[in-house]
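Re-run with default settings, no changes from the original entry. Doing this only to confirm the output is reproducible before filing.
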Amino acid sequence: MKHERILLRVRALLAKAESTPYPEEAAALTAKAQELITAHAIDLALVEEQEGSGEVVTRLIFIPAPYPKEKFTLLGGVARANNARAILGLERDELNRMVESEELFAREGKWATVVGYASDLDRIELLFTSLLVQAVNAMWAEGSQVDAWGTNRTKSFRRSFLAGYGWSVRERLEAVRAASGGDGEVSGAREPSIHPVLLRREERVVAEVDRRFANASTLRMSVSNGAGARMGHAAGERADLGSPRFTGRRPELSRP
């Protein structure tokens, strides 16, 4: 099947990106993989639209502690760049079900609801998991943080680092999406734009979010550590976009 062939090509590109010792080559291979993913998303969307298939669904994604609110910034960016939307929380019926089964309290962290087309949600979950591993590893690598007076600022640094990372990755993903999503006309010049079929799907997703989460509010967070935000943003610019680690054991995401 074409879908499987595309995934094999993407995995091959990402394997090369992970094994090369040259950052420039890795970046080029990863960008090519992301372009294939975006182009394939358009192909699937066109087929589903012509066949009248495909529908907007929801998927629950768990965000582990510590700092789940800041980690959600990354999920929100990945979802938005792939024609979906993420809500930090659950629909009322799902929340009640989890409370009754005690599943809500089984792990430390928060649940998010991602609304989008099923074919997009698979890619979003893979990409988010990969990027979160990279973000957490980069954050731990910075170690403990103290200010000029010796006061421990590790928590504020890590919160700000993760927020900065999420913002940076969102900017990069949206740039790749715009560059790969089709051609448009802007003031007589050819400029990158989003393919109309993706825009139509996104409009349906937003309408579904408004219906399901009518009382949802915009998530707001403050960044109290400028150095953490800057270093997180820089780490996001170096992140291997689209690279779920296909081999090897994943690092632990919830270290204290």
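The chain has one domain: 54-238. The helical segments are 2-19, 23-51, 68-81, 92-101, 118-141, 154-180, 196-212, 226-238.
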